[in-house]
């Protein structure tokens, strides 16, 4: 029995020695670090295959920082201002149309044809309501006499004395007038000699002349400047077509010219469609920055 016990004891010691030595070896091994994600160090160049993404910038923005919602889109700039004079030709047929135009509440200028049934009354009402008055000089058109003209009109066949007499008659009928423009007159305004007579009388009375430009080669404005008469010329006819949409478009064109040049003159007539278009359009343009002025303020 003794040899067997000795063998068991020795075997047990041997196994214990193996476990003891293995434990000592493990204690001496360096501890392994857990796998961590690779982190790029600062101030070192990135690897060659590294591509930095550019910040996404909306085209409306001017910086990479997104502005508050109220500032994200540029606010529309107010439209440029300009001065616009509206001359209403052919006034004097009736008083109701005159009142309708005055009631729009925007400055306009009435150009009255002497001899029309209500010429005196319209001139008086206009003066009472602060509306500027001009004389709408009836002048010979091309194609006369086939083309109708008022019986008191100015003709190329008339002598200078007759022209002067008729002009003076206009002023007796409409003494409120501060200026004049031509009614028709595509033939008369091309004649420098006859225009000199008309403009000479306007100069004597201290009145201005607006060339309605019924002829592309009218001598009216150029001669007025030569003679020292304050003058200007029409930029747009508003109502060659009596349609509210068309007239509104022409009115916008006149406003655009006024903004570009600083001022402009538009001419129209007291047609129902015109009155409707002006009633709708003039207050809107005023709110957009257009300044409506009397014709006298745009002559030089």
From TrEMBL:
GO terms for biological process: carbohydrate metabolic process. Coiled coil: none annotated. It holds the Pfam family Polysacc_deac_2. Gene3D superfamilies: Glycoside hydrolase/deacetylase. InterPro entries: Divergent_DAC, Glyco_hydro/deAcase_b/a-brl. It comes from the Bacteria. This is Sugar deacetylase. It comes from Geobacter hydrogenophilus.
